[in-house]
Amino acid sequence: MNFGHFDDANKEYVITTPDTPLPWINYLGSQDFFSLISNTCGGYSFYKDAKLLRITRYRYNNIPVDSNGKYYYIKDGDSIWNPGAMPTRTSLDAYECRHGLGYSRFHGEKNGLAADLLAFVPVDTPCEINKLTLKNNSDAAKEISLFSYVEFCLWNAVDDMTNYQRNLSTGEVEIIGSTIYHKTEYRERRNHYSFFTVNAPVNGFDTSRDDFLGLGRGNNNPIAVEEGKSRNSVASGWYPIASQQINVTLAPGEEKEFVFLLGYCENPKDDKWEAPNVIKKDPAKKIMEKFAASKQVDAAFAQLNAYWDELLSRYHVESQDPHVNRMANIWNQYQCMVTFNMSRSASYYESGTGRGMGFRDSCQDLLGFVHLIPERARERILDIAATQFEDGSAYHQYQPLTKQGNLDIGSGFNDDPLWLIAAVAAYLKETGDYAILDEMVAFDCHMEKAATLFEHLRRSFEYSRTHLGPHKLPLIGRADWNDCLNLNCFSNEPGESFQTTGPSEGPVAESVFIAGMYVKYGNEFAEICTRVGKEKEAEIAQKAVDEMYQAVLDAGWDGEWFLRAYDAASQKVGSHECEEGQIFIEPQGFCIIAGIGVKEGLAKKALDSVKERLDTKYGIMLHQPAYTKYYLNLGEISSYPPGYKENAGIFCHNNPWISIAETVIGRGNRAFEIYKKTCPSYIENISEIHRTEPYVYSQMIAGRDAARHGEAKNSWLTGTAAWTFVNLSQAILGVQPSYDGLSIDPCIPEGFGDFTLTRRFRGATYYFDVKNPNNVEKGVAYLEVDGKQVEGNVVPVEDGKKEYHVTVHMA
Fold first, then answer.
1. Residue 44, class by beta-carbon neighbours within 10 Å (0-12 exposed, 13-18 middle, 19+ buried)?
2. How far apart, in Å, are the Cα atoms of 666 and each of 19, 463, 655, 750?
3. 294-306 mean pLDDT
4. Is the peptide bond prior to 507 cis by the omega test (within 30 degrees of 0)?
5. CA–CA separation, 518 vs 530, rounded Å?
6. Per-residue confidence at 176, pLDDT binned at 50, 70, 90?
7. Does residue 23 have a cis peptide bond before it, meaning omega lies within 30 degrees of 0?
8. pLDDT digits over 197-215, tens only?
9. DSSP strand E in 473-611: where?
């Protein structure tokens, strides 16, 4: 069942009903100011950090769902409605929401009155612009009242929801004409404020939520709107809001536009005031002047569209499959950029109040966006590395505002260090910028402990090399990629965090998954060492990698698939010997991606076992059989009901690993089959089952043991975005950056046909024309570069050359 459709020409998803299974959201912003907005105008805004600089409130766990946003109430006689349907839920004569790249449009009609709302964050200004257009399509004049509404958060989103004994006494505002300034705590330690304004005279205002809503009412029926008269209230403590009333007269056929701005401003700490207790408004005035007229807003919107057009032009494919084109050219890359900006911190599912930027998460996200903005990838790598500890281990997350590591969910996740090598290797292949390895980078954010980025990589590898268990496999620590496989936790107390309880170090528990990472990224580290002339380090790394390869064959193979781990008692996890949890997805993917077992014939066995034991029509499950009881030695993974999350759910994040592994052994049909099962565009027609947005990936889909098999959760902010783009662009379509240039080695399904691909790389544009006359799944016979046949499948880089025309002959 569809609730909308793709508009590929405009790069939009068009939602045709407000009654989607869940709020279907979009992200506005590309630099520091961000907003989330749903298809009914719900959502919130923040500056840099969704926890520490939250500008507007959003209510999680609320009824009805998706409560609070930027709302525009239209009172037309006795009818009160909103362009996005919420919060009044008045039945509309027409409704449409168009989510685009960095913007959303809403169209509503009621009783001959049309309202069009455009919401976006401009490329270079810390504000959200809402342009509202009202048009009278009836044959009679209309006298209407328009009421805006936003509810301010008192900055720290966690404190805002908990510290009521203080917060209900701190709210402060200033009202100057059509502008409402939120200045809570500005008198003391803050030098920032927000504001909400409109480019028209107002007939009234409210800044007190209680006065605007009325006693016992919600935002679905504010008394001020019902009576058609603002209270002109001035918030003092309690709940500050911003609402303006504008009375509008529209002749038949007439339309009027209004520009509303929600902005964030900072002043120097020693220059905060215009007068006693009067904030300095110069930064706000500059923003208001910049977007005072509709033509200025239109220019900013055109700039935003040009920004995205330029970004997405860096990778473009044209194939016979519209789903591949749509996801590769638009939505997958867009989601990769959103995960780069947000990591896992701010969404409808993750409130932004706890998690910051993930160390592992941000390193993986970089794999999907490094080709788009390599200069920001460079900056992100240095930010991540600066939170690393001196021994090579890492904080598991850091706050985007302070760029300081935090221990909210612990440390000691022993896969973290290797992901830094993965990120840097991807950056070096993309850019050839080896100078980054000489950058001085702090440890634990202390510059007095700084060392080169290369030294950070060396310590990452050394941490893994020196933390091995009795089977010579890497120690798992608190957990590896699967945060819920807690082999050193042993928690019996309800409410304890599995990620902070028990030792982060264990002398025995080992991870076969990290072993696969160790081989793959250890090889990358050895290659980096060689390329910068550090032969001794390369020799040490390569010897350790070779030993790990053999350790996996000796102790990590279970007969038909790779083991998952050894627990703290050195008992097997993910073995046919286990009662439950006999086979896991992660090592089957990553060990084969690393090349382990390929020449020995084990890779095919493992992947056949995945298909036989883990596959479903909605994707590949994390493990089977599901855990039906709580296992003290395994931790959180066994705490979920069967089929949900880590307990045999379908984790979209690691489905691409299996698809990539299939391309390693040349099975394009199977690789593409896996890709299609979780790809949003292919499964749009089961949105009533899937429930999350049909234009972006979700983290998890309920497995076959679950009551609602096929239902998705946690959309948008997931490593699925980056890994699926790597899978599609590099493994399936086959264009891979390498240290020496772009290589191409497609692995496609039978019947896929010829395709063309445009790729920006190191200042040049590559035009690939892939020919597959014999309909093979994999195999490049030869390349022609600018009409000349070349050996191998790498297009060598030539200094100063700006265009390459490459014909790829598969056979």
1. buried
2. 43, 34, 17, 12
3. 98
4. no
5. 18
6. very high
7. no
8. 999 999 999 999 999 999 9
9. 510-511, 565-566, 572-573, 583-584
Q: How far apart are alpha carbons 367 and 371 in whole angstroms?
A: 8
The answer to whether 732 and 709 have CB atoms below 8 angstroms apart is no
Closest CA to 173 of 155, 195, 147, 191: 195
- Nearest 5°: the CA angle 703, 707, 708 is 65
Return the pLDDT at 721. Answer: 97
User: How far apart are the C-alpha atoms of 105 and 532, rounded to whole Å?
Assistant: 50
Integer Cα distance of 438 and 454 in angstroms: 7
How far is the CA of 101 from the CAs of 29, 324, 341, in angstroms?
Answer: 10, 18, 14
Backbone angles phi, psi at 419, to 5 degrees: -65, -30
Integer Cα distance of 151 and 131 in angstroms: 19
Q: How far apart are CA 595 and CA 516, in angstroms?
A: 9
Question: Which residue of the set 32, 66, 206, 483 is catalytic?
Answer: 483
User: Rounded to an integer, what distance in angstroms lies between the CA atom of residue 766 and that of residue 602?
Assistant: 36
Three-state DSSP state, 169: coil
119 forms beta bridges with 104, 130
Please state, rounded to an integer, the average pLDDT across all residues of the chain. Answer: 96
483 annotated active-site: yes
Q: Report which residue type is found at 565.
A: A
CA dist 255 and 552 (Å) reads: 70
Residue 179 bridge partners (DSSP):
176, 197
* C-beta of residue 267 within 8 angstroms of C-beta of residue 195: no
- Most distant CA pair in the chain, distance: 85
For residue 152, list its beta bridge partners: 56
Residue 251: DSSP 8-state: -
640 vs 484: CA distance, rounded Å: 10
Kindly give, in sequence order, each residue whose CB lies less than 8 Å from that of residue 277, ignoring residues fewer than 6 positions away.
187
Omega into 656 within 30° of 0, i.e. cis?
A: no
Q: How many whole angstroms separate alpha carbon 36 and alpha carbon 348?
A: 8
User: Is the separation of the CB atoms in 83 and 72 below 8 Å?
Assistant: yes
Residues 697, 335: contact at Cβ < 8 Å? Answer: yes
DSSP string, 199-218: SS--SEEEEEHHHHH-TT--
Could you tell me how many helices (H) and strands (E) the chain has, helices first?
20, 45
Question: Is it true that the peptide bond before 625 is cis, omega within 30 degrees of 0?
Answer: yes
pLDDT at 354 over 80: no
607 phi, psi to nearest 5 deg: -70, -35
According to DSSP, the residues that pair with 479 across neighbouring strands are 413
CA 460/CA 415 separation, integer angstroms: 10
Which tokens go with 795?
A: 């297009």
Which residues make Cβ contacts (< 8 Å) with residue 539, sequence separation at least 6?
none
Token output for 147: 């009421």
Q: Identify the pLDDT of residue 222.
A: 98
Cα 32 → chain centroid: 15
Q: How far apart are CA 455 and CA 443, in angstroms?
A: 11
Beta strands in 415-476 (DSSP E): 440-443, 446-452
H or E stretch covering 263: strand 255-266
Question: In angstroms, rounded to a whole number, what is the distance separating the alpha carbons of residues 302 and 311?
Answer: 14
Residue 277: how many other CB atoms lie within 10 Å: 11
If pLDDT is split at 50, 70 and 90, which confidence band does 345 have? confident
Q: Can you say whether residue 241 is alpha, beta or left, with left for phi > 0 and alpha for psi between -120 and 50 degrees?
A: beta
E strand map for 635-786: 650-651, 698-701, 712-715, 735-738, 741-744, 755-761, 764-771, 780-785
Length of the chain: 811
Name the DSSP class of 720.
H
Strand (E) positions, 331-483? 357-358, 395-398, 405-411, 440-443, 446-452
- Residue 102 in contact with residue 29, Cβ under 8 Å? yes
CA 472 to chain centre: 35
